[in-house]
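Quick look at the format.
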Amino acid sequence: MKLEKQIEGFLATPPLWIKEQFGIRQFEFPKIDLSYFSPKPIPKRIRLGHQMEHVFNQLIKSSADFKILLHNLAIKSNNRTIGEIDFILRETETGKLLHIELTYKFYIIDTAISEPVHQLMGPNRRDMFFTKIEKIKQRQFPLLHTAEGREALRQKGIDLGKTEHQCCFKSQLFVPYGNGEVHIRPLNKACISGYWIGFDDFGSERFKDYSFYIPYKSEWVVPPHNNVTWQSHYAVLMDINLRMLKENAPMVWMRKSDTKIEKLFVVWWGG
């Protein structure tokens, strides 16, 4: 997969909310002209979240609106890492310092839960949106203001002053298959990218005439396209079944025609 596709996918992914929600201000991403952008290779054997940090880093470096003062600084206490600061940026026009926590998430929406902010969770039901929000507010933002955080920044020549905390929180959301109307206010409906479905339902006859592809995790960010090796429904079911046994919910691209490809997660826990 070309790095350009991953970068385009990152830029095309909307923020999970606009302006300020949950006491967290959303970072307003600057306009990036990719025609003058030349990406540098990203290590392949790092998890997707760290790949997105590299993408964010390269894109912001190409913008005249900000200067990156630091990236991915580990804060230690007695030689034990107590947290990491993702980015400190200086806004070119104002000189203001921004502390940016970067998050890129894939969440399914479980409509069996009444409260929208509690409906969002990772496809394996372990990664909860509400828990992540609390972690950002209670741990990641305050980290700068601990004695250890202040000292680490002082050593980098950064005086916090009136640093503003913001979050670049991008997300792709997946609604229950066949459920077209989902209410997720105050979250951004533009983040809805596909569907999720239980394995038993996915195994039904209605999908047998379509073609399928299981993308690598680094491909999750990119829009589905035809330039992959497609499998039959029968073949992909055998592959997914092995993942179900390991309680692993894969993303699947489902090609209904040459011009219509849908993204969905097949989950092991229900549907």
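Next, a different chain entirely:
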Amino acid sequence: MGIKQNIEELRSKLPEQVTLLAVSKTKPLEALEDAYMAGMRDFGENKVQELVKKSENFHEDVRWHFIGQLQSNKVKYLVDKVHLIHSLSSISLLNEIEKQFSKVNKVANTLIQINIGREESKSGILEEDLYEFIEAIEKCKFVSVKGIMVIIPIGDEESNRKYFKKTKKIFDELKEKNYNNISMKILSMGMTHDFMTAIEEGSNLVRIGTGIFGERNYNLGGENNG
């Protein structure tokens, strides 16, 4: 099936309140154009350089999501380019986002990435460090947290469901509290192989790469995110 048919099939499965994010990392603009023509406006990249280049050579109404591990020294390039940073994962990164976005008096929209599976190979805040992290976020003027993102450990449906439930519980607990800079609106969890389970457990944004663009011919590295 082609990209257009893949998107149509996915949309037929997704509830209305769920945002479909096309994970377009490593994909050429021709493939993104096919997705755009099929109605996609949310695209996810995991390399800053690739996101910047694509954003400068593609449709202006696209919302670019940064979904990879973000290095502090690359943050400045995302200012005025990124719709949502999914991978806010440390106080040092938070401080750099605050610093770079303050220079242009813009607020960065972000998601807190939680390392829900406590995997050493993945970035993200550990559960026990979350409230200290939130205290730091609350001191910011140019960072706004819109929700949570997780990349769960590879496992079967039962294992996936366990991690999704755990994340949703944290999401709901934070939602009940009153913060200045934090509002739990987006729960970004679920990829090509597990998005239906994620939606059943409360996800309202799914990151789909292979399910839209097909198997990758090559990968530029970074955490698997689609």
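The longest helix spans residues 157-175.

See the schema section for token definitions.
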